[in-house]
Design brief:
Layout (H helix, E strand, L loop, with lengths): L3 H10 L11 H26 L18 H31 L8 H19 L8 H25 L7
């Protein structure tokens, strides 16, 4: 496996200058936004459906019932499934963008055009299913981490006196 300096040198030698080191940052930003939007809204909704009602009316200063690690893990699992489904089309395009031959002088406009071109190529070859190719493998990576993350986050918030995430 090449070292980091060797990898950077190889990327730079393919053309495109320093900009080529950030090839694909646009698709990564899109992918991250899709995942975050889908996952956070799903976590909040799922946690609300799984959480018990408060012991006392809101605004009385009394705590709600204790949320459990199982509730957080289940809501996190739902978060992982929806987040993965949301980001998979961008992930499919990202793979093709990363593997495309570097072009010199890539601008933001041409990067978005390249994403559109690669998305159309996927659609033409595999149809809508191509946008979600590899979803099972992606879920095997994403869902377990999404189940663990809320347990740690919620327990840490509680220990710091911040209350549960709402």
């Amino acid at each position: 496996s090449p070292s980091l300096p060797q990898s950077v040198s190889r990327i730079l030698s393919l053309g495109g200058g320093l900009k080529s080191l950030w090839k694909g940052c646009e698709i990564n930003a899109l992918r991250a936004g899709l995942f975050t939007g889908g996952s956070l809204t799903t976590y909040t909704l799922a946690k609300g459906l799984l959480s018990p009602p408060p012991l006392s009316p809101p605004g009385t200063g009394k705590d709600a019932l204790e949320e459990t690690a199982l509730q957080h893990a289940a809501a996190g699992g739902a978060m992982g499934v929806v987040g993965t489904l949301m980001y998979m089309p961008a992930d499919a395009v990202r793979g093709r963008v990363y593997n495309a031959t570097p072009q010199t002088g890539t601008s933001a406009r041409s990067a978005w055009a390249e994403m559109a071109t690669e998305g159309r190529a996927i659609w033409r070859r595999w149809g809508w299913r191509g946008m979600w190719k590899g979803t099972g493998a992606a879920m095997m990576r994403t869902v377990p981490s999404c189940m663990a993350f809320p347990i740690v986050m919620e327990r840490t918030r509680k220990e710091m006196g911040m209350g549960y995430y709402e």
